[in-house]
Amino acid sequence: MRKLALIILVTVTSQTAWADAAGDLKNYLTNTQSLQASFRQTVTSQQGKVQQSSGTLAIQRPGLFRWIYQKPFEQLIIADGKQIWLYDPDLKQATVKDMGKALESSPAALLAGNNQFERNYKLRPLASSEGVDWLEAIPKQADQSFETVKLGFSQGQLTQMELHDHFGQTTRIYFSALKINPKLDASQFRFIPPKDADVIRE
Questions:
Q1: Which CATH number is associated with domain 2-201?
Q2: Reported pTM
């Protein structure tokens, strides 16, 4: 009897977490037009090597984002709705690619996309952990950059992402200082490379 009660409790808890996380994702897709946050990121290689970075981001849905790595090295990624620019000030190098080709190739692009998330991903519930309700999103097309994407919601807000790519790397992103639907200056989503920068088109 005790074992049966435990099974029922686990099942109900899992269903509740799934409902909460699914509802939070739907709420984000429906009600979030813009977003500002700070982030902390770790990338763990297949061999266990860890790289850490941090910075800020701004998103205007759909299709616009500004993702700035501030530590340990400065790097700027901007999407203007048509193109994605990646600029490295130390190397004085700017790489630009068509937005369509780069769609969903980065965490920022996932967050800044349109409301077709469920059309592109198969969703399944994961166990809640430390107050975070988790969803796993598996791309329906095999040519996506990531094998799986996990979305973590806390108190209705997206606070964590975990991405597993085809090279065995795991990227974990932790969001803080979230501002939902702030008024954003459109100029921050435009990028003009410096005159002395090498521009590489992909």
A1: 2.50.20.10
A2: 0.82
